[in-house]
Design goal:
With 112 residues, this protein is of the alpha+beta class. 42% of the residues lie in helices and 14% in strands.
Length: 112
């Protein structure tokens, strides 16, 4: 979904992924970025597809897509790319997209 520029509403600051997502947080971050208009580049497509499988496991107990540790690393890397995209595409003055104590969101910028 692409946000139309004339109807653009900046995202609200706050938590988008709370810590209860646990091991599924990185996959959730990818889906949020996609929902906000991110099109994963070619080197991210496999990781984005794996994120969908990981969230399917979360939503359907007993489902096991057999994700490997390497798959998990790829999901984590793609989530970092998605986070960079969110910061570039959806900047909000004085705020930054980042993880804080297990929660991901658009937080006041506390970087020094």
């Amino acid at each position: 979904m692409t946000v139309p520029s004339k109807n653009y509403t900046p995202p609200e600051p706050g938590c988008y992924i709370d810590s209860h997502w646990g091991q599924y947080g990185s996959a959730r971050l990818i889906t949020i970025a996609v929902d906000m208009g991110w099109s994963p580049r070619n080197d991210c497509l496999q990781g984005a597809n794996l994120a969908t499988k990981k969230l399917d496991e979360c939503s359907h107990p007993g489902v096991d897509h057999g994700l490997t540790p390497e798959d998990e690393e790829l999901i984590d890397w793609v989530s970092e790319v998605a986070e960079e995209w969110l910061n570039a595409k959806y900047p909000l003055s004085g705020h930054y997209w980042f993880w804080d104590d297990g929660d991901f969101g658009l937080w006041p910028d506390s970087r020094d």
